[in-house]
Amino acid sequence: MLDRQSQRSLRTGWTAFLVLLFLSPALAVDKSGVKPTSISLPSGPGSIEGLGSDFEPHLNTGTSSYNVPISLPAGTAGHSPSLSLNYEGGFGNSSMGIAWSFSNSSIRRQCEKGIPRYEPNGADDDFDGLTDETDEQDRFLDPSGEELVLMDNGIYYPENQEQFIRWRHITTDGNDYWEGHLPSGVIQEYGLTEESRVHEGARIYKWCLQRIVDTNGNVIEYDYVRFPGSNNQIYCSAIRYGPGAPPWDAFSMVTMTYEDRPDVLDDYRSGFLMRTGKRLKQIDIALQGDLPTGHLIGDINSDGINDALIRRYVLDYETHPHWSLLSKVTIFGADGVSSLPPAEFEYGVRDQPRVVSAANAVIGTKSEPLKVMDNDFVDLIDINADALPDILRTELGGQHLAYLNQGVRTEGGRDYIQWGPPQNVDSSDNGDLALVRNLNEAEVSLTDVDGDGLADLVLNSSINPRYFKNNGDVSWGPTKIIEIKDGEDFPPAPYSDPAAQTVDLNFDKNIDIIRPISGGYQVWYSLGPRRSDSPNTHRYSPKILTPGASHDGAVLRFADELGNAIPGMNLADLNGDRVTDVARIRPTSVVFAPSMGYGNYAESIVMEIPPDNGFGHDEGFAALTQDGLLKAELIDITGNGLADLVVRGEGFRELWYWINLGNCTFDQRRIVTQLPTAFSNPNPEIRWADLNGNGTDDLVYSDSELEPGQKLRTIDLGLLINGDPCPFLMNAIDNGIGGRTEIEYLPTTKYAISDLLSGNPWSMGLPHVSIVVNRITQKDGLGRSFETEFDYHDGYYDGVEKEFRGFSRSERQEIGDDSQPTLITEFHFDVGNRNEALKGKTLRTLYKTESGEVFS
Fold first, then answer.
1. What's the rounded Cα separation, in Å, for the pair 372 and 254?
2. At what angle do helices 14-23 and 4-12 cross, to 10 degrees?
3. CA pair distance 786, 18, nearest whole angstrom
4. Residue 263 lies in a domain
5. Cα–Cα dist 252/288, whole Å
6. Strand blocks (E) in 609-739
7. Which of 296, 315, 347 corresponds to the end of one domain?
8. What are the beta bridge partners of residue 538?
9. How far is Cα of residue 843 from the mean position of the Cα atoms in its chain?
10. pTM to 2 decimals?
11. Which domain covers residue 738, as residue numbers?
12. 799-841, pLDDT tens digit by residue?
């Protein structure tokens, strides 16, 4: 929908805006190495039993796990499906809502290392002079998520083998499906027909399980359905199984019923739109054939023949006005009326207040440097790979100083960030060449060039461009030369060219460079090192012209023809698929073009900014003023992966925000009041960074002219407005017959800082925050409770494979009482840093007393 009223508002206020723009005081350039356009990290858990299993954390990763098994009639010779409703704290969103999934198997193209190109496409995609070679081909993932490796005999095997399944991709005679051959002789078939494939035209992204045949010829069949409004998405609608192959005179069946969901999910990681507009509501287990008495009889699978109900599972979701959070599963008997007590689930999400005060939410600072981010020589970067933003100060005299963020401390009931003493950033690996570069240089930036999750020091000049790798141990690595094909234009330096921007265009975690022009987007892809003989090089592609993002027939640009920055332009993820979109904030709406990768964008979408009457707080909101446009940003302040609209109010005393609901709409305006105001500059420097390391971006004010302890003031907006830094994680389970499980969480940074302070710093880098299970309390309904606490040590992130590998050591402490002692179980894991195939494997387990004595 075109918003011409907003365009007229912009034109009528243009003159006033130009005056305001040129009178505004100059601010330090935001070269932060921890913002989303600089790095790309993984967005990223008794004895009585009721419905569902025990809640258990994965001790090697700290994530939470729970499942509700679906009980099915036995198949012929035991050949029947295995189904369950599965909760995984780190899963994301699906047709069962946030963090839940229904056990349905598929093979898909890998998108985690780059959006699929659907090779062969006749193009030299890695710019090495060869076309459609093996390393340009899309990779495939098996149902367990392991990458499939093609062997010379045409068989695919998982990169890390556990089930010993042989995979074949059948593409002859117009076919396109997969076969999995199990050691038992069972054959699984995926994507046999178009109905079981997620695709757009000839581009197939996912092949879903359609048939399983055992060695006796017994068959399990899976059906899928498409719904209007669920673009390119399919849903499992029925499963049938019986003796031999169909058609059957008698067989068992599972049918799934779906309902509309308020939080429609758009995902472009496949290279095209996949829209999930439905959520699972009901699962019916039934049989057809000789119908037993006492069962609900009806045409359950809509084939015109009566069936007998065996069991029914009904799913209910939170009464929250928007988000799909599974809150209850009820099992009904064969009559469709009698039921067992339901399993119920609770989450930390709450309705956010319309107005909330930040007066008591300011996080202070101690031992911060004299100069902070309002100085052109200073900015934020994670220099020691612990996921906490540190302060880097560059000096004209050839010195780089790092002030390490040592986490949040509490004193007198108030929180503050403790900063370590200045440390020299070692540059001996590059002969101290890095030390002559300063952040005040327009061609110098902090950007994750190699995609390992840490921002590097980059000199992006037209003569001898290079970068110095962030080693993650307060040092710069060897000089790495940035190469491009002879005769081609080098990428522009983003901070010297207002039109140029850094962004991960293709979701490969490498940061690319774009420069919009009137005819589209000029793109330079970050390609990595040369394959041959030079590890100290990094290649960029030649300049590529792509269609770019546009609205109403005009390219969305960051600067005009004269090089002046265009107000309101943002790079942000508006639909939650972790691929960065292009957006422009306007007085009454936000226009954004969803990214489909490689400089291609979907048709632009207009998200209206809802007006209001002020709800008794102020005069209300109708449209953003020109001053408001200057102070408006798209930032994920709630921590759910969706960029929200944030406007810093008059005199910085207030902050207005509109929550992004994920379905191309904003919620009503909300206001944070009583923000800090005592600054030496009427426009203090602002950074958005997770300074306290709990997983959500904080609002950070910088003012070097203030007294020590006041130079940095931080507000954790996610905690302030959510009341919980991880509101969508499950925090309680009632099993329906008296048993209750309560779950508490902590960020990994808490464990890293605790180990650091106790003299046991982590030896491997973990540059992103992960929320892990800290405590589980189980109550039996009879007044007794049992507590288990968890500790995690030495987390590891593989910067090459772009994945969190887990912890090398974890501890489970089962708290004792007068009747039994405390038991501590210590687990040691291989994180796969030497051999990926061993990742997550247990190396040893120790059982200890509370005093640390090991049981023999």
1. 61
2. 60
3. 65
4. yes
5. 6
6. 632-635, 644-648, 655-660, 666-673, 685-689, 698-702, 712-715, 730-734
7. 347
8. 482
9. 30
10. 0.89
11. 730-848
12. 887 788 899 999 999 998 878 889 999 999 999 888 888 888 9
